[in-house]
Amino acid sequence: MEAIILAGGFGTRLKPLTYTRAKSLLPILNKPMIAYLIESLPNSVDKVILAVNYKKSQIEEYFIKNDFGKEIIVNDEPEPLGTGGAAKFAEKHISDNFFVLNSDIICSLNLDQMIKFHNKKKALSTISLWPVENVSEFGVADVIENGKIIGFVEKPNQEDAPSNFINAGAYLLEPEILDYIESNKFVSMEKEIFPQIIKNTGKFFGYKFEGFWMDIGRISSYLSINFLLMNQKKINNIIGENFVNKGSLKQCSIGNNVKIGEKTVIESSIIFDNVKICDNIVIKNSIIGKNCSIYDNSNIINSVIGDDETIIKESNLNNNYIWNKPIPEGYPEKQIGNVIK
Ligand code: GDD
Ligand code: MG
Predict the structure, then answer these.
(1) How far is the CA of 45 from the centre of ligand 2 (A)?
(2) What kind and span of H or E run contains 71?
(3) Cβ contacts of residue 218 below 8 Å, gap of 6+?
(4) Are residues 112 and 35 in the same domain?
(5) Is there a single domain that holds both residue 241 and residue 293?
(6) Would you please indicate which residues are annotated as catalytic (active-site) residues?
(7) Has this prediction a pTM greater than 0.70?
């Protein structure tokens, strides 16, 4: 069985971290986000098709170095084709029913249980569902008692939403669903294809599950998932190799080759690889990209520092992000595709 992983987004809401890396390679407790997803795939999935374009060589390189015991196909779109277009572009690798998975979700969904549900319902399409309070940043399903979905609307205004059950970003589809998608065209699965399947087939179902779910689409949720997993694992900090620490840490994820100076306090933050943090510095609720240097007597609160930046001594950053280099060519200013209204 195949799984298509949608990993071609720019991750615009995670800039400047995504100016230099694919969103799916962002480290969560020092392991790339996409590794969690691959590890959650059932044994029945033996082939993984990575739908990529932006920063595809980074993703390719990661899978050359790391073996997950499954065949990995890097399917490079000539240009971003959207969530539906990317699935269609993978059609040549599909033999039977298959998963389509957003690559920016960490959750407790059991895909084996979802397969059982899909088969029991004789569905053409099953999507995972998760309840949230504010649905306006997600796709929302109109779901009735037996799990059947009778309507779907992407990023509605809160007051127009048909329910509080959102599309949790995992789909199990029968191959004929791909007939609904035009080839080599930008197509949104959520906006264009789901409503058509619902209308034309009546075999569109929603699978609800329990546990936890998080979309790592923005800086706040990227920080939160690190804290949530640390709590689950009952660890206070996670520390990479070659750590030199003269300061103090609370609820931090620290990459490899990090140095922290005297009287420096770091709380609820993520520090990437090869970072030098000098003396008498406070860092809270912030992310420091790789190869950064932070000099003495600085405060960094609720901020994100892109890779390879230098923060001069006595800097005060609050609710800020730092990026002093050119923005990569072709990187969009705003999210493309399923944009929030
Ligand atoms: N290959 C490829 N090509 N992948 C893409 C493209 C593309 O053109 N555009 C987006 N993706 C990937 C992203 O990398 C991400 O893994 C996934 O598709 C979803 O795109 P996002 O940009 O993260 O969408 P979203 O978070 O605003 O909304 C989606 O996820 C929500 C749940 O988190 C939708 O599927 C919503 O309906 C859903 O509720
Ligand atoms: Mg997302």
Answers:
(1) 23
(2) strand 71-76
(3) 13, 14
(4) yes
(5) yes
(6) 155
(7) yes
